[in-house]
Amino acid sequence: MKRSKKVTGTTERLVTGLFQDILESLPTGCASLRIQPTKDPQIFSVSLVPSNERSAEFGTMVSEDGIYSVFFGKKPTFTDFECPWEIGLPRSAGLDRHFDIIRKMCLAVIAGRCEHHFERRSTRGLIHVSEKEVYRVADIGIMRLLWPRRKNLQVVK
Prior knowledge:
Largest sheet: 5 strands, antiparallel
CATH class: Alpha Beta
Helix content: 25-40%
Number of domains: 1
Number of helices: 3
CATH architecture: 2-Layer Sandwich
Number of strands: 8
Strand content: 35-45%
């Protein structure tokens, strides 16, 4: 699959460089870097895949416009934080601000300060960067959309 020059240029180098820096700060052999294209040639993902299968993977999806989402989890459960709003940034935030938060989130996931809560109709993901900085998101499954809603109907006589 061919990616546009814009995606394969600066953005890919910067995102890959960020994940490479994080990988180099870890003990040798505890994780690997994976760069993977998607079905859409304008989007690709970069992630750190731990060698311990009980640990969570952390990565990001990158599009022509910049960072599309950040994700963590292990098969089959992954939680996506859409960027920039679900990581608490304004739309005008630059890549530097995204990278600061992504680095903090990634290090928290590596340290095991992340969790999934499985609820009746959704999966809630949390990343505890610090005591005061917690990122939360809920992925609502298709069943929530299809679940019948109560209707307050009045009988007219």
